[in-house]
Amino acid sequence: GDAKAGRAKAVGCQACHGLDGLSKLPDAPNLAGQVEPYLVKALTEFRNGTRKNEVMSVAAQDLTDADIENLAAYYSGIQIDVIPPG
Amino acid sequence: GDAKAGRAKAVGCQACHGLDGLSKLPDAPNLAGQVEPYLVKALTEFRNGTRKNEVMSVAAQDLTDADIENLAAYYSGIQIDVIPPG
Question: What is the C-alpha to C-alpha distance for residues A28 and B73, in angstroms, rounded to an integer?
Answer without folding.
Answer: 16
